[in-house]
Amino acid sequence: MSPLLCTGRFDRLLYVGPPDQTDREEIFRIHLSKIPCSSNVSLRELACLTEGLTGADISLVCREAAITALQEDLDASEVTVEHFRTAIMQVEPSEVESYQDLSSKFQRLVQSTAIRGPEDLN
Questions:
Q1: Where in the numbering of this chain does the AAA ATPase AAA+ lid domain appear (predicted)?
Q2: Residues 50-79 pLDDT 10s
Q3: pTM of the full structure
Q4: Which of 13, 33, 62, 68 is most buried, with most CB under 10 Å away?
């Protein structure tokens, strides 16, 4: 039996799906607090443009937008909405469906190998 499946390692499995629009806005708010942005950057617009992206994907979008701004002008003082649009087009979304499938398979595995008592440890 896998050590990960031993009693006490994981008591519950919890699937966390991709963030909704409100969550994506908050994720952008967190990441953009560290990036100087133009006044034309709207959290709501960015959240709309990134439907289906995970938090990690959004983090990558923010980094790519900042890099795009610097590639355009090494003296750039802010990142614009155009930089974000370019970054969004470049970032490949995570394969959420494969994660959902993997989560289901893992849950079935855990349920089929659940330890019911000390006699099951051998």
A1: 40-85
A2: 998 999 999 999 999 999 999 999 999 999
A3: 0.70
A4: 62
